[in-house]
Amino acid sequence: MANGFLRHNRWLRLGLVLAVIVFAMLLPLWFGPHSIPLPGTGVSSDPIPVAPDGVRLLVDQTIWDEGADQQEVSQDILDALLDRISQADAFIVADFFLWNEWTGQLKGEVYRKMAVPLAEALIAQKKKLPDMPVLVISDPINHVYGGPELEHFVEMREAGIEVVYTDLDKMPDSNWIYGRLARFYRRLLPSLSDPDGWAHRGRLRHPFQEGGEKISLAQAGNLLFFKANHRKVLITGSESSGLDLVVSSLNPADGGSAHTNVGLWLKGEIAMEALESELAVAGWSTRCLDAYAKTADRIRMRASGLVRHVEDSGIRVRWLTEGGIHRMLLDVIGSCGDGDQLDLALFYVSERALVRALKSAVKRGARVRVLLDANRDAFGRVKTGIPNRLVAKEMQGWRGPHRVEVRWADTHGEQFHCKAMAVKRKDADPILLLGSANWTRRNLRDLNLEANAMIEGSGEAITRFEAFFDEHWVSGSLPYSAWEEKGATGFFKGVKYRFLEWSGMGTF
After folding, report:
1. Average pLDDT of every residue of the chain
2. Residues 223, 228, 234, 237, CA torsion sign
3. At 146, phi and psi to the nearest 5?
4. For residues 472 and 212, which has the higher predicted lDDT (pLDDT)?
5. Segment 65-112, tens digit of pLDDT
6. Cβ pair 313, 51 in contact under 8 A
7. Domains, the chain, ranges and CATH?
8. pTM to 2 decimal places
9. In angstroms, rounded to a whole number, what is the distance separating the alpha carbons of residues 505 and 494?
10. 118: closest CA among 250, 306, 264?
11. Residue 322 and residue 487: Cα distance in Å, rounded?
12. Measured between alpha carbons, how far is 213 from 415 in angstroms, rounded to an integer?
């Protein structure tokens, strides 16, 4: 009887089928992997003294000259990287996220080639000093998560440089719903992991390069985990100049060569903090642990012999990664109030705890200026403005002794790619905090790998950042009204932003 009832009730049959499908999809969420802190992550170092001449701000900036109807571009960061590599004679450790020649849908010539010149500099120095250990760490995005290795990575490896791709499988899933489902069904369907199977045949358009080699379904599936080693770090050792560290927001990718970025060139003991974090990441990522351990030991030994004590000059630096960046931002913003000023230069801002912390600082009387990318350009593709335009809309509703001032970087195809905060404090030293980390859940909650540095104390680097910020604020930006989200569209975009931030399904 029951079978007859089901046979004749089409809607009930459809409901049962859908229930089974939903149950099959949701079941893995109950058995998702439990992530544990990985070595080298969540770092927050003690403040380390640095000499006044041991810290320098590096700026890549593009400003549109309306009179001449053209971009004015000036760059420091790649030049600093090439200079440090050419001077290194003890060791080199380089860790960069995007390191490729891809230009997406950009038309015409890129402003400057970056990927190959950086690789060629490393190769040249390795050939010059064959016994010097050189370690390169990068993200699997540069071979699209399982595709052919890019030629400049192959050439670095052939030159004797140790190349390690970060093992993303060991990192927590930021897109946690998709991640748990994908891992469950990979185990359930072993054919998905067969390198000769249907899932590994090139069928889909290259996601990062117009006309690029087609990628497989397996590669596309790996991309959707949306996780990355997002660091941009260079550490070098020289017998004559000691230890050098460059940390920035710059990816050495040709398609982003006109982006506005900021970084720091630091000398001295702080480089050891960065080095230990980088070696730890390479250690749990490498497939040749024994060989890598020998390389790591050689680098540590040579680096330790180059540490030089610096008397406290009033300038101190902290090394911060992942959750350590988040905790420090909350501490600094949480201490700000009447008489303090915060200047934020950000590519992405969305992380809810930081948004709430800024709101509280405004209520306490802090002055806040926010210079944002409008989130409209991505390598020739047009974006929707999520999340920045929605968070900016939220900021306009905050009430305090002073209104939050928001302006948009005036970009023309390139990105305002900075991730920086400067704080002038009434009763304490000024602060500058910058590096690779966007102000998003993915970048700050121990999901992606990130690296920042924070300076405390008056000095040329902070003064130069203030000048950089003011120049863009006055001459290189647009008023809030230029990209204001209004009406129902703004409301629905706001709902979408909050869901994407919570779920990790967005690309920010």
Report:
1. 90
2. negative
3. 125, 5
4. 472
5. 766 667 778 899 999 999 999 999 999 999 999 999 998 877 766 789
6. yes
7. 48-172+225-304 (3.30.870.10), 176-223 (no CATH), 316-503 (3.30.870.10)
8. 0.91
9. 15
10. 250
11. 36
12. 26
